[in-house]
Each structure stands twice: as C-alpha cells, then as structure tokens.
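hey can u run this one w/ protoporphyrin IX containing FE bound, need the structure tokens asap thx
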Amino acid sequence: MKESYVFNYGENWTLHKKIASNALRTFPKAETKSSTWSCLLEKHVIEEVSELACLLLYIYEIILQHDKDHIQDITDALISACHNKYAVAKITILNDDEIISTVSDLVGAGFEIISTCIYWSFLYLIYYPEIQVKIQEEINGNTGMKSPRFEDRKILPYTEAFINEIFRHTSFLPFTIPHCTTADTTLNGCFIPRKTCTFINMYQVNHEETIWDNPNLLRPERFLNENRELNKNLIEKIFIFGMGIQKCLREKVARNEVFVFITTVLQQLALKKCPVVKLDLTPTYGLVMKPKPYQL
Ligand code: HEM
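ok here u go:
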C-alpha cells in the first residue's frame, strides 16, 4: 500500500504531526497523582490490559459453561453455530481461541460506537430541549410506562426520525474503515490504481446539499411525511454503516440498542443542561468523532 500514498501533505499536516508527536513524547512521562503508577502511560496501559483480561476470562468461562440447549448470549450462539456445522459437515469453523477473538472483535466493533452515539444523543437532547419534549410526548402517548421494546420502533416514528437525524447530522463515524483496491479502478472518471488505500467520506454524503435540504440544521421532521410516517427512501440515503460487502455487520442491532437506550431513559427522566455551562457541539476529531465532555 505504501507506494500508492501521496506524501505531499502540506504545512498543516506537518504541524499536526509535530503536535501529536510532542504529545506522545510528553504524555508517557507525565506523573500520576497516585504513587501506585510510575507514570500516566503505565496507569493507562495496566488499566486497559486488566479490562481486556477480564473480558477474555469472561468469554472463556462462557465457553466452559456452554449449554447448547440454553443459548444466552452471542458467545453461546457462536459456539452453537460452530458445533452444528461440525455435526453436519464435520468441518471445524472456529476453535475456542478463534471464538474468543471473534467475540472480542464484535464487542470492540460495537461497544465504543454505541456509547459514542448515546453521548451525542444526550448532548443534542439537552441542546434542543423542544425535541426532547416531543420524543417524551410520543413515548408517553404510545408506550406509556411499559418498558420500551425493539418492536416499538414502529410506533415511535418521531423518535426514530431523531435517531436517524443524529446519525446524519453528527456523522460521528465520518469515514469507513480503510480498504485497499484489489484492481485498477475508475470511479466517476477518477483513476484509482490497484493497492490504493481508500476511505469513503460518509460525512460529506450526509451533508450533501443536493440530497439534504439545509444539511447543517438538525431537523428530525425531514424524515416524516404529513401523516407522521417515516420516509424510508430518505433514511436509506444516510451513510453511516458503510456500504457493500463490508458494511457494518450489525446495523439492526445497533439501531435497536440505541432506540431502547434513548426511549428507556427519556421515559423516566428529563435531561437538562447545567444552567451556567455553555454547550459545544463541535466534535473532537478522530476516526470516531466524540463530543467534548459535558455535564447534564
Ligand atoms: C451506531 C452504531 C454503529 C455504526 C455507526 C457502525 C458503523 C460501521 C462502519 C462504518 C463499519 C465499516 C464499514 C466499511 O468499512 O465499509 C462497520 C463495520 C463493522 N461493524 Fe459496525 N457500526 C455500529 C455498531 C456496530 C455493532 C453494535 C456491532 C456488533 C455488535 C458492529 C459490528 C461491526 C463489524 C463486525 C464490522 C466489520 C465488518 C467487516 O469488516 O466485514 N457494529 N460498522
């Protein structure tokens, strides 16, 4: 891939790289308040490794306790799928170690993105309290105090529209993960040689003026028609789960999770911003764009 990169990144890039490199040099040496750690880097690495070790041990325990007649989670489902395949075709698809890696990949792929999406949603809900009220009215009028279920997505169109508008407006995953062209390719007249690292700019698509009326405005109503029905064609134009064969493996799970999380919280609580604090919607830039820390 290396030979296909263009190295003329310009002054901004050089400055950016210098700042990042300085931060990486000074951060590891920074001292912690507690004497348990020799420096900040040691603290972070040990904490992260402990968390990872706990997760791997947990998955390992599930494998040991697996009961094929009692599927309780994704690890169980994966083991069962492998055992079934073995029983039918005598092919081992994944061994225990590979099952552990697959589960931790799935958790890794989903965990941070969902929490980022929830952080953004809460920030927008306190920034636009009138939208929050509309969602609460919709929940109260349709599900009451019954705890929200995935199937309620069909009866809460405004809430669904809000979640879609969060995906579009924040575009917190601005690019797909990098892919590499396997052959010389021409796309819209642009030649892309084989072995070029490519990203798709999803943020741009989600803010394209020829598709979206006033793209910078947060307006869940854009997805609803006069009968308050969702415009599925427009929703399909939101670009946040990637495309093609490497599209997100769990779009439906993600949509269900975010929906139940938001509706469960808003059914019971009114979220408010701290009176003196000014909210800032600009993201911190990165592969996943996160909101700046805020209080509610
Ligand atoms: C709002 C939440 C989520 C968003 C916006 C999202 C978005 C994405 C994107 C953009 C990709 C890369 C597609 C590409 O490179 O072309 C991806 C890949 C993937 N996602 Fe998600 N994702 C979300 C939640 C989840 C969850 C909850 C899971 C699992 C439980 C998950 C599992 C995966 C996996 C396994 C891949 C890799 C697929 C492959 O390489 O073939 N995602 N996701």
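The pocket of protoporphyrin IX containing FE is lined by residues 106, 109-110, 113-114, 117, 173, 176-177, 240-242, 246-250, 253-254 (CB under 6 Å). anyway lmk if its weird
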